[in-house]
Amino acid sequence: MSDRNELFVDEEENLDSGMVSDDTGSFHEANEELLDDDPIVESISLVMNQVPHPSTQSLHLIQYVGKPKTTSLDDQNISGSIKEESNYLELNVPLDTSRFYDETRAEEWEAQVTENSLRGVFDKTSGGLYAAHFVISNGTKKMVLVPIDSTTQIRSSFKYLDEIDMKKNSSTVNWMEPTKQSKMHILQTSGKNAQSNTSDGSTSHALGDTLKHVKKFEEEDWSALRIVEPNHADSEQVRREIANNADDLILETETRMDEYLDTLINT
């Protein structure tokens, strides 16, 4: 049986010459050695810019949730509309009716479903979210950052199912007997606003605010969107202005690596 003292070492003894002690200087020296194994081979300038005409232009991030990986939107005749006050977007993407399309069911529904309606609500950002545009100009590389105004996730709305139900209900009412129609009444109800106290002591009228938003959305008209391809002249013009009009706003850092590491450790 080995001596019990062999299981322990003196406090001054270092088991591994590569271990880092609690001394801050030793910590930084060890990290510098690690960084030498993965050296920086090239530095690219970060440049801040904005859309060419902020009063009439804005940048938005649209995420297509559930989009099949093999599905491409290139060369698609996409149409779109928006309710600007409600921040509500709708895009109509043509369906490939040559695959997995049930024409018999479409005839039963008396509806020709040839488009996939995608809808989403824009959520305004509070800053800190940017789109990056990589540019090579005169042999110099730079990354242009442009603030994103809002983001949205678009999903299939299947609104054609609602339209089919509305059509069926309308047909049912029209074919009802007059005696049955006379027995129909409109029931009016009034609901009390659901009030809840917020953390700052104010009162939130959740139900009333929701009904106001719904009413505003239903009364607002749709505005058609003009959608252009990435290789369109207008798209290329915007990219050129973003790339070439941002040379005076190069981002520079005054924080050293050791200061950054100290911040990560102590926070």
Automatic annotation (TrEMBL):
It holds the Pfam family RPC5. One of its GO terms (biological process) is tRNA transcription by RNA polymerase III. GO terms for cellular component: RNA polymerase III complex. Signal peptide: none annotated. InterPro entries: RNA_pol_III_Rpc5. It comes from the Eukaryota. This is Piso0_004897 protein. It comes from Pichia sorbitophila (strain ATCC MYA-4447 / BCRC 22081 / CBS 7064 / NBRC 10061 / NRRL Y-12695) (Hybrid yeast).
